[in-house]
Amino acid sequence: MPSRTRLKAARLGPRDVLHVGAAGLRSRPVRIVLSALGIAIGIATMIAVVGISASSKAQLMRQLDALGTNILVATPGESMFAGQDVKLPKDAPGMVGRIDGVQQVGATGDVARSVRRSEKIPEEETSGIAVKAATEDLLKVLRGSVGRGTWLNDANGRYPSVVLGHVTAQRLGISEPGRQVWLGDRYFTVVGILDPLPLAPEIERSALVGWAAAERLLGFDGHPTSVYERSTDASVASVRSLLASTVDPRNPQNVRVTDPSSALRAKAATEGAFSTLLLGLGGIALLVGGVGVANTMIISVLERRHEIGLRRSLGATRGQIRIQFVTESLMLSGLGGLAGVALGAAATGAYAASGGLPWVVPPWAVGGGFGATLAIGTVAGLYPAVRASRLSPTLALHAG
After folding, report:
1. 225 near 85, Cβ under 8 Å?
2. Which ranges of the chain have pLDDT less than 70?
3. What DSSP letter does each residue of 94-143 carry, written as one string?
4. Of 137, 164, 227, 369, which has the fewest CB atoms closer than 10 Å, so is most exposed?
5. Cβ atoms of 336 and 43 closer than 8 Å
């Protein structure tokens, strides 16, 4: 008897798998676009949330690099005796300047006066603006800049002239130097308006007067309330240990030493902590998109029973049918993922451009988001693929 040769199904190469998978997508373009939209929305939300958070953090780190972390501030602490005010010595700035490693020293002193647009405004309406005496080196220590006008110097620091912080100028409605404000019991001329100072928000909300003018015209007692120093990076720790005892050798416990850059570092460290909710919403949208893909694939199996039956009758194996529909689901999810990554990156770019931030989209977010779409596509396509492979060729052709 002649030997029987068992027929074997031809193997599908990668190119063949992509071809049969793409055939189903091309036949129903509108449905495919709507199904991929759910995936795209979920991925776009997640990429945008991570990108915006990373861009904000990058901006904070840029500020830290520009402003430095080698600045310390000495202020009066709390006295051991209730009701007793603590004052820093008048020569505190000079003493701090003698510490080894200290490069620059500046100081401010609180002046018990109010600043208003004119004398006609009630004195109690301070708008939260403080009046401070300032040394000439203060702006260098803070690495600040004057947006308009000039800073205090030997010439204008002795006369009724004032420099407004960024927020102070906004609250007083003054945008250009040359205007006058009522300070104490006389008019002072605005000679400068500062740019924002992230390291010293208290300066942004102050009206700054020269040290000599504050003593002569406003009754300032000459005691500083904040001494700012900037040292070398290597000597920050040693300066911090000596600062309190140098400012007030008799009562170092009355001096509080703070690091203003710590607030920016903490903000940078916690940036994105409130993005968890938005990431969760993006994840829900991604899951909903996955359900949409699964629904589309199930409907595709029901509509294409005749095609499945014909391929099975021509020798296609159940495994090849499964591969076809899983590949179709993966391609559908992949298209949605690519669109979502592009939309999320574009949204991040628009936000960064509007706020003057660096455009940062972490590679791990792109890779993780796209990987999530492929995983969801695989899961969403498994049941429809298994269902398609189990269809009887005879029944499928008869139903078609």
Report:
1. no
2. 1-14, 16-17, 19-25, 60-61, 63-68, 79-84, 261-279, 281-282, 302, 393-400
3. HHHTTSTTEEEEEEEEEES--EESSTTS-TT--TT-EEEEE-TTHHHHHT
4. 137
5. yes
What is the DSSP-derived secondary structure letter of residue 176?
S
SS3 169: helix
Helices 261-270 and 29-67, axial angle in degrees (round to 10): 160
Residue-wise pLDDT for 254-290, tens only, equals 899 988 766 656 665 555 555 566 667 667 777 777 7
pTM as predicted: 0.61
Neighbouring residues of 69: CB distance < 8 A, sequence distance ≥ 6? 233, 236, 259, 261, 265
Instruction: Report which residue type is found at 322.
Output: R
Q: How many CB atoms lie within 10 A of CB 171?
A: 16
R_g of the chain, CA atoms, integer Å: 35
φ, ψ at 103 (rounded to 5°): -105, -40
| CB neighbours of residue 30 within 10 Å | 7
Phi/psi at 100 (nearest 5 deg)? -65, 125
Average pLDDT, the chain: 81
**Which residues, other chains included, contact 290 with Cβ-Cβ below 8 Å and sequence gap of 6+?**
38, 39, 333, 376, 377, 379, 380
- Is the distance from CB of 231 to CB of 239 less than 8 angstroms? yes
- For the stretch 263-269, contacts whose Cβ atoms lie closer than 8 Å and that sit 24 or more positions apart, written own/partner, are 264/60, 264/63, 264/64, 264/67, 264/198, 264/199, 265/64, 265/69, 267/60, 268/57, 268/60, 268/61, 268/64
Distance CA 108, CA 396 (A): 87
Q: Which two tokens stand for residue 55?
A: 């861009």
